[in-house]
Design a protein that fits this description.
This protein is an alpha/beta fold. It has helices at 17-23, 35-45, 62-73, 110-118, 127-136, 162-174, 183-192, and strands at residues 9-14, 50-55, 140-143, 146-150, 156-159, 195-196. One of its GO terms (molecular function) is nucleic acid binding.
Length: 201
């Protein structure tokens, strides 16, 4: 795409240190599957009068990483035109905005726990809310004070409140539970930790 735009000088910035060194010829690829990719890159380099490769740590390349993730999620049917993307910088990570405190100070599953323990509906519950509680009864069960949700593969997810959910998300995203990962891998890791969070949506 860059070559088609008649650009002659190009600076390529990437956070994959090994690949950058291999493209520059400083390291030889040990995986033979990488050879076609490297040959393709070298052929593309010939289309520029000047091209430079620069490595930056992933922590300094978050914006490009986010754009790459976004591009992999969007199917563009137009080859010659892409709508501009408006980017807004937040004062904290996006996942912090997904977990809200309950207005009454009680966890989102309070009424569910009460129904499972006493088989009594909340006061002023509508018929629709009563039917919803009955449906949840097939997927949730109470063990002491801990509420679990059954999964199709007979696994169990622990239901947590917004405060606990925020703490867990911050730890997982910060890498305490492992290295940096994309959104899909992060979601799978959360599921492996047997956590269930309701965002009220």
């Amino acid at each position: 795409m860059t070559a088609d735009m008649n650009i002659k000088e190009l600076l390529v910035i990437g956070d994959f240190d090994l690949l950058i060194h291999q493209v520059q010829g400083e390291l030889s690829p040990k995986n033979v599957k990488m050879l076609p990719c490297l040959h393709c890159v070298k052929d593309l380099c010939k289309k520029f009068t000047k091209i430079e490769f620069k490595h930056v740590p992933r922590i300094q390349n978050e914006f490009a990483d986010a754009l790459a993730t976004l591009s992999s999620m969007i199917q563009n049917t137009y080859k010659n035109y892409i709508d501009p993307i408006e980017v807004e910088i937040k004062d904290q990570h996006a996942y912090c905005f997904h977990v809200d405190e309950e207005p009454d100070g009680k966890p989102w599953y309070h009424n569910i726990k009460k129904f499972l323990a006493t088989r009594e509906y909340p006061e002023n519950a509508t018929n629709g809310q009563k039917r919803a509680l009955k449906r949840l009864d097939n997927h949730l069960f109470l063990n002491g004070e801990i509420l679990y949700r059954r999964t199709p593969d007979l696994g169990l997810l622990i239901c947590v409140d917004p405060a606990e959910a925020t703490r867990l998300l911050e730890e997982i995203h910060a890498g305490i539970c492992g290295p940096y990962m994309n959104g899909f891998t992060l979601a799978k890791k959360i599921l492996r930790l047997d956590i269930l969070v309701d965002y009220g949506k």
